[in-house]
Design a protein that fits this description.
The chain contains eleven helices and ten strands. It has helices spanning 2-14, 20-24, 27-30, 41-44, 60-75, 109-123, 139-143, 164-170, 185-202, 207-217, 233-246, and strands at residues 38-39, 49-55, 79-82, 86-90, 98-104, 129-132, 152-155, 175-179, 205-206, 226-227. The strands form two sheets. Strands 3-4-5-2-6-7-8-10 form an eight-stranded mixed beta sheet, sandwiched between helices. It has a two-stranded antiparallel sheet with strand order 1-9. Helix 9 (185-202) crosses helix 10 (207-217). It starts with a helix and ends with a helix.
Length: 248
């Protein structure tokens, strides 16, 4: 059934007509597309605030990525606050909206992560977006950050697409943005910056607009391995599998 779901979705994206067998089984009605092309503000904002949880790890790549994160947001006029074991980046307000990113400080370890969650609890903040910035061998640690209500998970690691099933087991309605091949820090930064711009400007994430801008801005050929969340056949397949197993 997973294969059928993926094949149907691939056929739809290519514009080919579904086979008579699909139509006879009313497969499109039972297993619709995984997601709309717009991730709505209702899922991403609460009281005008979008909260993101971003994980960094204590290795050369993690430290370099963290420095890039600070440099990029400082240049864009975000307020940066160093806390005990974590950092908070707050965007300028736009159209009554703000983004708050709660990020690990590499080296702070589990104590820093616990402090970040304690601070968010005190502030009444719950992340709707979880972003993994690190190697694939750190993915298990980031997986614990994903809650049932998480709307979007960004796996910036190499082969992050292999985590799709585990992600949906923790957050069944989440969209997943990941690469099937190599995760690249510069591609991650560009994509995340485009998404932040869309969140502040539109109050939502329109994947048509994100991908159009990304194709114009990102020249690294490895971007081709990043999977657009709303057109991911594997995402649809796992969703169909979950629906099927839940009904038995």
């Amino acid at each position: 059934m997973i294969g059928l779901a993926g094949s149907l979705h691939a056929a739809r994206l290519s514009g080919r007509v579904a086979t008579p067998a699909f139509e006879a089984e009313r497969f499109p009605q039972h297993h619709p597309l995984a997601a709309l092309p717009v991730l709505s503000g209702e899922r991403l904002f609460r009281n005008g605030i979008n909260v993101q949880r971003m994980t960094f790890y204590d290795d050369p790549d993690g430290r370099a990525s963290f420095r890039g994160f600070l440099r990029q947001h400082r240049a864009q006029g975000w307020a940066l606050h160093a806390q005990s074991g974590f950092a908070v980046a707050i965007s300028p307000e736009r159209h009554g909206r703000r983004i708050i990113i709660v990020a690990d400080i590499p080296g702070a370890g589990d104590a820093g992560r616990a402090a970040a969650w304690d601070w968010m609890a005190r502030e009444g903040l719950a992340p709707s977006i979880v972003i993994h910035r690190g190697h694939s061998y750190h993915e298990d640690a980031t997986m614990t950050e994903i809650a049932p209500g998480t709307a979007l998970v960004f796996w910036g690691s190499c082969g992050g697409h292999t985590r799709l099933r585990s992600t949906l087991e923790r957050a069944p309605d989440a969209l997943v943005l990941a690469t099937q091949n190599i995760g690249v820090s510069t591609v991650n930064e560009a994509l995340l910056g485009i998404m932040e711009e869309r969140l502040l400007t539109d109050g939502a994430i329109d994947w048509n607009a994100v991908w159009k801008e990304a194709r114009g801005r990102i020249r690294d050929r490895r971007f081709a391995s990043y999977k657009r969340p709303d057109q991911d056949s594997a995402n649809l397949a796992f969703r169909a599998w979950q629906v099927q197993t839940a009904s038995h």
